[in-house]
């Protein structure tokens, strides 16, 4: 069997030169052994991160079981509805990073990690952090100039809460958000280096600290501003400490202003812009409902929807937490042209998500009404059609979870952008109509129908085409002698 030098797999990655020499001598077993070990290491790191994510999520659920009734009792139904709306606004404000700190940064850092290029990694991190700092400064200036003209009672559609209390809560929320904006790179750094377990450990500390702060605040007669300080303020302080630790752990990433490069910013904006559109679509799909319900039915009607959604969505959250650590692994494997591993990993995670996730969703749907009654009280108990809509929505989400992570990891955002935008438009449009004619149940059914009609024909077909098109260089026969008829460079 005679192979040309150009036919030797690029998947050998860091061991390329050594691999060429082994192939030249006729012994390729060590090459494949190294490739297999690298693939197993990806699984190990992803499993560790996924386990830590599930622990963090379990702690979050436990804290929710305590904090939801505690917060409702502390604030009252209307103030709690306003707090849920503020939380949704915070999620929307996170989009102002223009994609600089999200999947785009994960992609470029994963690629640099796969090539052992620490200089490029520092340039990307420095460019992202200082760009976000500039964005935060601009937003702070605009907020300062416009704040006095904002009518907070009109935004939240309430007259029973003092405007000064709403304004103070809104101002504190904006302040903590702007401080946290440059710190948002920490998740991307941990993920790119497949150390997501550390990020989840930080999340665990944040959750515990927030719960302690919440319990302390509820012992005093306060309002929404106290709640914002207890939750958002605590998370901001811990985020600052975690960012400092990141640059001690990865000293080559220290964000020096001299390391900022325009080409890095341009690359992040180009790739991040696509992911930003996907994020906008995702938030339109999953975070627009409290705003729609608040404007049409009032803030009190938000409570049954949000509480039920949190309960029934637990399996899809677990599936996401388990699969998300594979995004940087997919990127690193792509840099090494290891499509065999990518193909196998995608099939495994999709199978596990379906087998575990769908039965759990159905069980939670069956017990949703009594569980919510015990958890949050009679006022939060959902109707049957609301439960049905959320169950269908989550089942579709589980089916396409793996596809979304794969397309993200290998930098194929186009199908994600198109499906997310179409789904968001349908979700918001049908959600408004459904809310007017069917109440909160119409919002849930609109979510389910929109995702089913847009994700299947776009994401599924894109993944199928990708896995059929992308192939590694033809495999060697391990025990067969191989001769290279060109000199190894």
Characterise this structure:
With 489 residues, the chain is mostly helical. The protein has one domain. Helices cover 78% and strands 1% of the residues. It is built from 20 helices and 2 strands. Strands 1-2 form a two-stranded parallel sheet. 46% of the residues are buried. The N terminus and C terminus are likely disordered.
The number of strands is: 2
Strand order of the largest sheet: 1-2
Distance between the terminal alpha carbons, to the nearest Å?
21 Å
Helical residues, percent:
over 70%
Protein structure class = mainly alpha
Strand content: under 5%
SSE topology string: EHHHHHHHHHHHHHHHHHHHHE
What layout of secondary structure does this protein have?
Elements: E1 2-3, H1 16-25, H2 29-75, H3 77-93, H4 103-114, H5 118-146, H6 152-156, H7 163-180, H8 185-192, H9 196-218, H10 224-249, H11 262-286, H12 289-297, H13 302-312, H14 314-323, H15 326-335, H16 339-376, H17 384-399, H18 401-409, H19 413-438, H20 440-469, E2 483-484
Parallel strand pairs: 1-2
Helix pairs in contact: 2-3, 2-9, 2-14, 2-16, 4-5, 4-8, 4-11, 4-15, 5-7, 5-11, 7-10, 8-9, 8-10, 9-10, 11-19, 12-19, 13-16, 13-17, 14-16, 14-17, 15-16, 15-18, 16-17, 16-18, 17-20, 18-20, 19-20
Which descriptors apply to this entry?
single chain, 489 residues, mainly alpha, two-stranded parallel ribbon, 20 helices, 78% helix, disordered N terminus, disordered C terminus
